[in-house]
Specification:
The complex is a heterodimer of chains A (300) and B (346). By secondary structure, chain A is an alpha/beta fold. Chain A is built from eight helices and 14 strands. Chain A has one domain: P-loop containing nucleotide triphosphate hydrolases (Rossmann fold, 3-Layer(aba) Sandwich). The relative contact order of chain A is 0.19. Classes of the chains: A alpha/beta (300), B alpha/beta (346). At the A-B interface, helix 7 and helix 8 of A face helix 8, helix 10, strand 5, helix 11 and strand 8 of B.
């Protein structure tokens, strides 16, 4: 055994990152999603987890000079159906905005491998067979990005709330995460997993309210939430990002106006990306919007 | 003196020779029970042989100490030795205070806490701080960083190293001007060069790594700290046989303890937290179970207290239990600032 040379590339003393396809979001994450580790996106449904993941599988194809990995990616989805129409839509705007580097024949969808899984055990089986896919990628580009959307959906249904099942569940967490990290290290992969939230119940300071990360509490849609899958899963990821969504009422409410009178109240959904914990990032956050073209950061 | 001249019975001598013990030196460091097993004799008989052997060897070298007490020290000597040992600073004054100066060499210190509390940050900080040159009050040593989770980030260690150099040059103004020459020499890249980084991806690799450390450190004598981040991760996967896990872990802990003593280096083990089910309620505790908690000399728990990070000495033979705030900043681990603010307000 010999130690790794930390100065392998003396010109760039950073871990390689995969751009999110938006300079403002990239700045918040110091370049994007890091390779060789697992990044988790935590958010309630409709907050933009899947949008961000779809954008990632496209931007990973960019050359390294533009912050990408020049690689194809593997999208493992557990929530059906796979949003292929949205990916198609995003890929069109991706092609037009990078037409100066991409061939006119280039179809980004050719470099996204999609696999559906229905259970946690099936996910583990897929990961076990992954070596051969990564060694001999079915596309021209090597696979450097794995997205699992979502990990929570696999675990939240199948297991009961008994000590035996919980133990089996957390053992499977560590098996899956161990395998993912080993693959990430061996092939220099960026791994992104998405997770759901659960409502925060009970008192602050109790075990449920156990503080994990920079933010004292997580708020989304006016509810206090925490990441699903509990403490043992939190130990399995390297970085955790939280996408929040909060509605703000902007504009005047006229006399008859009420919650039900939608016409008179104009609402604005404000979305934020927060760094909950990451070995290389300070506590920070960034506002973003989801548009037809994708997920874009907003300068404050 | 040779085996043939030992005043033991012919049958014993025959057994010794046929078991391969042909010289006195081969017997000198042997335990009675091993000899009894090898020769298929009773423990008492083996002890008797060893006593004769040690008498014989003492006749050879009159000043040689007794074999059984060989290598023993008095408590007084040990105290002196301990006082002369240097500590690795954590860069946080309060944390150093409760630790009695910093992370101690020759000891195994376990540090645990929830994700995001700063375990890896502290690990990287120690890997950098161990390299502070002797004339700045450091150890001027090197670090071994064993990464089991993939959380070691190059850019972060570079940041921490830069801040460390900045602090050193800041301090030198108060000391002497001679250090100007050192300042020019210290480069963040040199700090990275002196961290031996190993990435292990399974528990088998982890055990092999720890077995290999002895050899590696013998070849790199200037290593003063071994950091394992985290000791837990691979041992929480796929272990149905918990008894096996306990045996492997305690074997690993013993080896680390031995390394710490042999090479006077600090061993820092980072651990995760888990919930423990006791009497119908769940409690937070460090992972790997009760028997593991005996494996470390010191145990430090990191936790949130409101918006501040705190460290608590949970177990230590020589330190009183105490807690202290610390903060994780862009420069690395530092003294918590809010405490200063509070004093200012008062």
């Amino acid at each position: 055994m010999i130690p790794q040379n930390l100065l392998q590339n003396p010109l760039a003393l950073t871990t390689q990152k995969c751009t999110l396809g938006c300079p403002i979001l990239d700045r918040c994450l110091a370049g994007g999603v890091p390779c060789n580790s697992i990044t988790e996106l935590v958010a309630e449904s409709g907050s933009g987890k899947t949008q961000l993941c779809l954008q990632l599988v496209l931007s990973a194809q960019l050359p390294t000079s533009l912050g990408g990995l020049a690689a194809s990616s593997l999208y493992i989805h557990s929530e059906f159906p796979f949003p292929s129409r949205r990916l198609q839509q995003l890929s069109q705007s991706f092609r037009s905005s990078y037409s100066h580097v991409l061939d006119s024949e280039y179809n980004p969808l050719d470099f996204v491998l999609v696999r559906g899984v229905q259970s946690a055990d099936q996910l583990f089986d897929v990961l076990l067979k992954m070596d051969s896919v990564l060694l001999r990628p079915p596309t021209q580009l090597p696979v450097r990005l794995i997205v699992i959307d979502s990990i929570a959906a696999l675990f939240r249904g199948e297991f009961e709330n008994t000590p035996f099942d919980l133990k089996r569940r957390s053992s499977l967490f560590f098996k899956i995460s161990g395998k993912l990290k080993a693959l990430a290290e061996r092939f220099g992969l960026a791994v992104v997993v998405t997770n759901q939230v659960v409502d925060f119940v009970g008192q602050a300071g109790g075990l449920n309210g156990l503080r994990v990360g920079n933010l004292g509490s997580l708020w989304s849609s006016g509810r206090r939430v925490c990441a699903a899958l509990g403490l043992s899963w939190a130990n399995c990821v390297n970085s955790r990002l939280f996408l929040s969504r909060n509605e703000e009422i902007v504009g005047e409410v006229t006399g008859l106006g009420g919650v039900g009178a939608g016409d008179t109240v104009s609402r604005l959904t404000r979305r934020h990306l927060h760094v909950i914990f990451a070995p290389h990032l300070p506590e920070s956050s960034c506002e973003f919007v989801i548009s037809r073209e994708g997920v874009l950061g907003v300068e404050r | 003196m040779e085996l043939a001249r030992l005043p033991i019975s012919a049958s014993q001598r025959g057994k010794l020779i046929s078991a391969g013990y042909t010289s006195l030196s081969s017997l000198s460091s042997l335990s009675p029970s091993t000899l009894a097993q090898d020769l298929k004799i009773s423990d008492n008989e083996a002890l008797e042989i060893l006593r004769v052997v040690s008498q014989g060897s003492r006749l050879d070298k009159p000043d040689g100490s007794h074999a059984i007490v060989n290598g023993a020290q008095t408590a007084w000597d040990m105290l002196h030795e301990e006082e002369s040992l240097k500590c690795i600073t954590t860069s946080c004054v309060d944390l150093d205070d409760i630790l009695g100066g910093g992370i101690k060499c020759k000891e195994v210190t376990e540090i645990g806490g929830v994700p995001g509390i700063g375990k890896t940050q502290l690990g990287i900080q120690l890997a950098v701080n161990v390299q502070i040159p002797v004339n700045y009050g450091g150890l001027g040593g090197k670090a071994i960083y064993i990464d089991t989770e993939g959380s070691f980030m190059l850019e972060r260690s570079l940041q921490i190293a830069e801040a460390c150099i900045e602090d050193m040059s800041g301090n030198s103004d108060f000391l002497q001007k001679d250090f100007q020459s050192c300042q020019v020499k210290a480069q963040p890249k040199d700090f990275l060069q002196n961290i031996f980084y190993f990435r292990v991806c399974s528990y088998t690799e982890q055990i092999a790594m720890i077995n290999y450390l002895d050899k590696f450190i013998s070849e790199h004598k200037d290593v003063n700290v071994v950091i394992i981040d985290s000791v837990t991760f691979h041992f929480r996967q796929d272990f149905d046989d918990l008894a096996l896990r306990t045996r492997l872990l305690s074997g690993m802990a013993l080896k680390l303890m031995k390394l710490a003593k042999k090479f006077s280096l600090a061993v820092v083990l980072l651990n995760q937290v888990t919930t423990k089910h006791t009497e119908g309620s769940f409690q937070l505790t460090l992972a790997l179970g009760d028997s593991w908690s005996h494996s470390c000399t010191n145990r430090v728990i990191l936790y949130w207290n409101g918006d501040e990070r705190y460290a608590y000495i949970d177990k230590s033979p020589s330190l009183r239990s105490a807690s202290a705030p610390y903060s994780v900043t862009g420069k690395g681990i530092r003294t918590a600032t809010s405490k200063c603010k509070r004093i200012k307000i008062m």
